[in-house]
Amino acid sequence: FQLLINKVYPQLKMLHSISYAEQDIGLVLENSQKVMDFDNSLNEAEQEVFSYLALQEQAGKRCTVKDIMEHFNKKPYGWDFYAILYQLVNLWIKTRIEILENGASLENTALEKALKNSQKHSMLIIQKLEDIEPGKIRRLKYLYQNLFDKPIDDTDAKGVVKEFTAKLSEYIQELDKFIHQCDKYPFTQKLKPYWEKLNNALGKNYNWYYNELLNYEEELIKDKQELVVPIWDFMHSPQREIYDSIDKFIKKQEPNFSYLEPEKVNELINGFQDPEIYIGNRLQQLKTNYEILSDK
User: Fold this and answer.
1) Phi then psi for 208, rounded to 5 degrees?
2) What's the pLDDT at 1?
3) pTM score of the predicted model
4) With the C-alpha atoms ordered 212, 218, 223, 224, is the resulting torsion angle positive or negative?
């Protein structure tokens, strides 16, 4: 019987008689760093899957998990469900592929859950990862440091993208908090276009960060320095307290402005409406008028 199986499925030998079970998928993902540290080269079965993906890519065909499952389940392979998934997961761990759902790259728990759900396989796109030039990795690390004011720890191409997108998500949330205060601080609305630009950079595939995002490297850094930094610094400075005090004074005392010096009142109101009030010492100059008026 075994001779018959070997004759029908000659490539079954690539699995070296190893049996794979459902729990193996989760275990190898949990220990992915150990797998990477131990050996990043591909075994025979992994190389066979990777070579098939490369052929599909050369032919201009989009490959799904379902395609891989069907191809390696039939002759001459005869690999079972979890044996095929195991090879895919190892290719993912060894940064040879990424697996996308609705255009977003899947990671760890989400990847495991999606792979085990056969109904999703036709929607999971497999993309072969490019070999990234060291210069591009250095540029993305440089962009990270300039956007987030801290160095990046990772050095491998996939790790840098992972750390970059995680920090980018946090940074976007911080900007969003400022923008949502635009009723009180109208100038924070200026952050919206930059926020949208950064938000559009989330959820992209691995290759995009090296082939597309880096085209906007200088623009992103320049906008951050000229637009974000002044507002960010203002919102974290004592200047903000002065702004709040003047804002409160104007709203509370507006009915009484007719009893105060018109020139000083107009200077205060016009100055407070300056769309660039957060820049330099403009607010400090208003503070003098505010103190004179508030003492009367």
Assistant:
1) -60, -40
2) 46
3) 0.77
4) positive
Structure tokens belonging to residue 133: 């030039």
DSSP secondary structure letters along 14-83: GGTT----HHHHHHHHHTHHHHHHH--S--HHHHHHHHHHHHHHHTT--EEHHHHHHHHHSTTT---HHH
Q: What does each C-alpha distance from 110 to 170, 234, 251 come to in angstroms?
A: 20, 39, 50
Find the helix packing angle between 22-30 and 81-93, rounded to 10°: 10
Cα gap 292→125, rounded to integer Å = 67
| Residue 4 to residue 110: CA distance in whole angstroms | 39
pLDDT above 70 (res 181):
yes
* Residue 10 three-state SS: helix
Secondary element (H or E) of residue 105: strand 104-105
Pairing status of strand 97-101 against strand 124-128: antiparallel
Nearest-angstrom CA–CA distance, 116 and 110: 10
Q: What is the mean pLDDT of the chain?
A: 91
Handedness of CA 92, 93, 96, 100 (dihedral sign): positive
Count Cα neighbours of 201 within 13 Å in the Cβ-side half-sphere: 27
CB 187 within 8 A of CB 276: yes
Alpha helix stretches (DSSP H) within 59-188? 65-73, 81-93, 108-116, 134-148, 157-179
